[in-house]
Design brief:
Blueprint: H1 7-35, H2 38-58, H3 64-88, H4 94-123, H5 125-152, H6 161-176
Length: about 180
């Protein structure tokens, strides 16, 4: 056993990610609305989470530190990721799109929770962290590929907020004329 925390302390450490994420998400949402560059922020969140899981796997740093940082990274990721749907899906299909995304996310969380329990029971927490690191590496590859595809198609998902406002203004003027 790497850490020797009492179960109540271990539970508090696990909860820290979600408590921090809940508190920080509105702040990150506001900042991302003001800056734009959603794909940049998504990939930054993935990289930070990757670093946190690497710390948990390969160092003896107090887990309060990487788990707190991971809570911030989760806030950043969600605040940048979810709004991108409305940038690429027509308004009349947004409810369906968000419903499908939520279903896939919940299915993934359920399956990953079961698999995580199996990994811990059979192979321990280091293997669990390696499992999470592998998925984060795959996520980063997908994020970089999405960045490249988006850039090749005009950069809709990674526009700055200023460029988005200018484009909206130009489209409004065009529709009035």
């Amino acid at each position: 056993m790497k850490y020797t925390f009492h179960p109540s302390s271990a539970n508090a450490i696990n909860s820290l990610v979600y408590i921090i994420s809940a508190a920080a998400s509105p702040v990150f949402g506001f900042c991302i609305d003001k800056s734009g560059k959603n794909l940049f922020w998504v990939n930054a969140g993935i990289i930070i989470t990757l670093g946190c899981h690497a710390c948990l796997a390969f160092t003896f740093i107090n887990p309060y530190i990487p788990m707190s940082i991971m809570g911030l990274a989760y806030s950043n990721l969600a605040s940048a990721l979810w709004p991108m749907v409305s940038l690429v899906v027509p308004e009349y299909q947004l409810g369906t799109a968000y419903g499908i995304i939520q279903s896939v996310q919940n299915l993934g969380l359920a399956v990953i929770s079961l698999v995580a329990g199996i990994i811990v029971d059979g192979h321990g927490y280091l293997m669990l962290e390696l499992f999470f690191l592998a998925w984060l590496c795959l996520s980063l590859i997908a994020g970089v590929l999405l960045y490249l595809v988006d850039a090749a198609r005009g950069g809709v998902l990674n526009r700055s907020a200023r460029k988005r406002r200018l484009l909206e203004k130009a489209l409004e003027e065009k529709s009035v004329n």
